[in-house]
């Protein structure tokens, strides 16, 4: 019986595209992709591929971002993994100027932060029930 060379890994002989496709179907969270990347060099290349990370980004339902939010570098030049990390590390302002979005690193869920002006308050248009007091702190994300 022939013995395999010590330290040899048969999985490294599989094409990266095949590993990427398999991982994108079997990995449920970004954490699992990070764990898969430490298995071997072949798994690292597959786990870091755009094919895998595209499954963690919100598909076509990502709301339009405010201009300048992801300009440096241009979003088109980012890999899917870099885009996911950018959206999960920082709040990004949406085009309406009243809402921010962040992706949760563990579950890849979308987390929204609403400004006070984005809220609808029952009887908010009647001064006897509610009055808007502007905040003077200009460091607010939603300051006008």
Overview in brief:
The protein has 144 residues and is an alpha+beta fold.
Helix content bin? 25-40%
* Amino-to-carboxy terminus distance: 76 Å
Report the C-alpha radius of gyration, rounded: 22 Å
Please provide the ordered H/E string of secondary-structure elements: HHHHHEEE
Instruction: Tell the overall outline.
Output: elongated
Range of strand content: 5-15%
Give a count of the beta strands, DSSP E runs of length 2 or more.
3
Query: Quick one: biggest sheet?
Result: 3 strands, antiparallel
How do the strands of the widest beta sheet line up side by side? 1-2-3
By secondary-structure content and strand pairing, the structural class works out as alpha+beta
Given the structure, what is the number of helices?
A: 5
Mean pLDDT: 79
Low-pLDDT segments? none
InterPro entries: F-box-like_dom_sf (IPR036047), F-box_dom (IPR001810), PP2-like (IPR025886)
Organism: Digitaria exilis
Domain F-box: 11-55
Protein name: F-box domain-containing protein
Structure, explained:
The chain has 144 residues and is α+β, with helices and mostly antiparallel strands. Among the domains are: 13-56; 61-116, no CATH class. Helix content is 28%, strand content 8%. The protein contains five helices and three strands. The protein has helices at 16-26, 30-37, 41-47, 50-53, 80-89, and strands at 92-93, 99-103, 110-114. The protein has a three-stranded antiparallel β-sheet. Helix 2 (30-37) packs antiparallel against helix 3. The protein is elongated, with a radius of gyration of 22 Å. It comes from Digitaria exilis. It holds the Pfam family PP2. Residues 11-55 form the F-box domain.
